[in-house]
Specification:
Chain lengths: 338, 294
């Protein structure tokens, strides 16, 4: 049925164009046909988008909106919330030193993630981008920690790092017993331990992302530079890195947001209570510990809103000042990126 | 005179291979050394878990970082013959495949409309889905838990699967829409002329042509579901419906004295994700390449 419509409109258009079968008639018939059966198209649109939209609105947008609503109540989760407290939850959060500590930890994790993972991942990606035997195997192996679940990572590392665990045992054997530490519960060290684990777990993702970005750089550019006598590192510094800058900025964005919302690893390794004394608590572990686990659903939702707003502000600032460079063209981006 | 001209002529062709060759010769061994070092660091903790499973608790206590003096497969056999591990694997497989199927079907249908239909509100629709990237599950977890509870889906895998589908949709749509847009209009034209309806075109042309993108998206959804922790932690409180991550954690706390068995359990639980990833590594990297460029 729609076929007949299609051919007939096509004919009309062809006639209207004076039977010209050049390039122009190809586009118009599509548009024309779509307009000709708006009801059918609308039904198709509804049928195709409907299920996804319902699931998305029901399980993503609605809960987020409700989080904002519940945040204004003192509510234990039974029955509808009635005890409206205005902004009191938010005031409590901002004044709670435990939350301030968690926020500081998040800030430290954001910065250290960028500083530790970025350079390492760039170097690895540059090295792996060259022709190496067994390159695909190397790539798979580097990505292994990223694929393993946080629970497995957390369980394995906590056993290794326990005071009588493998890491201290290894140090002992190497005659470095003096360096053995209480890696997990010493508050001076715990956050660095966490950073090592985070770097180990997520650097593979950065490498894969950068490799993907490097493969998008046309081979002619480094080749031309090599012909002009540029050294390997000069090529990387002046050609590859600037061209990789958009990928770097996207990775940094994902890394920042991920670090702000870090939950699984900390909660699994340090549990809900030790995290704050070991100095590794994050806003998300604070949310779960003081919200659901304490039975204060209203308060937990207010924390979620704060967490979201902080992420949003950071994301907007980043978008405004860093990602916008990508739209300014290669020259402006190139000048600033290094 | 010849001395002057020959270098001038000879230099350009001699020059280009020279820097490339030297840089390769100079760089390659370094690259191998670095690669081996990095792989060693990346694999050491994984190997610790796997090898630790072959030791006995006595060995682990006396020498935590040692090699198994006798390779003891008893821990692995215990885990493999007990029912708990297989029940957890079964639950994780059901959740993983159902999530993947849901994400692919719903995501592909929605992406098809967003990529190839022209209608009012399309931009808003796309922006709505894309905005989902801004809402991590952590933020919505408490109300999400209440929604699932009100739907009567607590302690059922469905209560994990539906939210997982919903939260995977933004990434899926963002990856698939450019993919579907890239399919040339001419193919659509030809299909319509040959008597294909628009939905027929979807099934016969779009689905096969979008396969590479679909596979990438599917793998990402599966791995995310396989490793998912926060949501099952809130929704599933009953051993019978635990997925692997919850199972590993509860096993680790239940048998905290039996370190060797915990290590065996943990290493077995990471095998499926590793196998899955090894099989599809190329697809994942390919999909990311597309996403970075797009």
């Amino acid at each position: 049925m729609s076929v007949r419509e299609n051919t007939s409109t096509r004919l009309e258009v062809d006639l209207a164009n004076g039977g010209d079968t050049g390039t122009t008639p190809v586009a118009p018939p599509v548009r024309r046909r779509r307009r000709s059966s708006p009801v059918g198209a609308r039904v198709e649109i509804a049928v195709l988008v409907g299920p996804a939209l319902i699931v998305f609105l029901g399980f993503v947008i609605f809960p987020v909106v409700m989080a904002a609503y519940y945040g204004f109540f003192s509510w234990q989760g039974y029955g509808p919330p009635t005890d409206f407290v205005g902004f009191r939850n938010y005031i409590t959060i901002i004044q709670d030193p435990t939350f301030q500590e968690a926020l500081t930890h998040n800030g430290v994790i954001v910065v250290l993630s960028l500083v530790l993972q970025g350079p390492v991942a760039i170097l690895l990606a540059l090295l792996l981008n060259r022709k190496l035997r067994g390159q695909s195997l190397i790539r798979v192996l580097i990505f292994v920690p990223y694929v393993i679940s946080e629970v497995v990572v957390g369980t394995g590392w906590s056993l290794m790092l326990a005071s009588n665990g493998a890491v201290n045992g290894m140090l002992e054997k190497l005659g470095l017993g003096a360096f053995s530490q209480d890696w997990l519960s010493n508050p001076d060290i715990a956050i660095w331990t966490l950073m090592v684990i985070i770097t180990w777990k997520y650097v593979g993702f950065a490498v894969i992302l950068f490799l993907a970005g490097l493969q998008g750089i046309p081979e002619e550019l480094p080749e031309a530079a090599a012909i002009d006598g540029a050294s390997f590192w000069q090529i990387q510094r002046h050609i590859t890195l600037p061209l990789l800058a958009p990928t770097l900025r996207i990775w940094a964005f994902l890394s920042i947001i991920g670090a702000l919302q870090l939950f699984d690893l900390v909660y699994i390794i340090w549990g809900q209570y030790i995290a704050s004394t070991a100095g590794t608590s994050t806003m998300a572990t604070y949310l779960v510990a003081n919200g659901r686990n304490a039975g204060n659903y209203g308060y937990g939702n207010a924390v979620a809103v704060v967490l979201f707003l902080i992420s949003l502000v950071v994301a907007l600032i980043y978008q405004r000042f860093v990602l916008s460079r990508d739209t300014e063209g290669a020259i402006t981006g190139k000048g600033k990126s290094t | 005179m010849t001395a002057l001209t020959t270098p001038a002529v000879a230099l350009p062709p001699a020059n280009p291979p020279a820097p490339i060759k030297t840089s390769r010769r100079w760089g390659t061994p370094v690259a191998y050394v670095v690669a081996v070092l990095v792989i060693g660091l990346m694999l050491a903790p994984v190997l610790f878990i796997i090898i630790g499973g072959f030791r006995t608790n006595a060995q682990i206590t006396t020498d935590p970082s040692g090699w198994p003096s006798v390779w003891n497969i008893g821990n692995y056999l215990d885990v493999l013959t007990g029912g708990t591990f297989w029940r957890l694997v079964g639950n994780s497989l059901i959740a993983g495949f159902a999530t993947t199927l849901g994400v692919v079907v719903l995501g592909l249908m929605a992406s098809y409309v967003l990529a190839r239909y022209r209608f009012r509100g399309r931009g808003i629709l796309y922006a709505t889905f894309a905005a989902g990237l801004m809402f991590p599950m952590t933020v919505a977890i408490t109300p999400l838990y209440l929604v699932v509870k009100n739907l009567g889906l607590m302690n059922s895998l469905g209560g994990v699967i539906l939210p997982q589908i919903a939260f995977a949709l933004p990434t899926t749509i963002i990856i698939l829409v450019p993919f579907l847009k890239a399919i040339p209009d001419e193919i659509q034209e030809a299909a319509f002329i040959d008597g294909c309806s628009r939905l027929g075109f979807f099934w016969r042309m779009i689905v096969p042509l979008a396969m590479p993108g679909v596979i990438t998206v599917g793998i990402l959804a599966f791995i995310a579901s396989w490793n998912s922790y926060l949501l099952p932690l809130f929704i599933l409180n009953n051993d019978a419906v635990f997925t692997l991550p919850l199972g590993v954690q509860s096993f680790a706390s239940q048998y905290s004295v039996d370190t060797a068995k915990v290590l065996a359990f943990t290493s077995l639980s990471m095998i499926p994700a590793l196998v899955f990833f090894a099989l599809f590594e190329r697809r994942i990297v390919g999909g990311l390449t597309g996403a970075v460029k797009g």
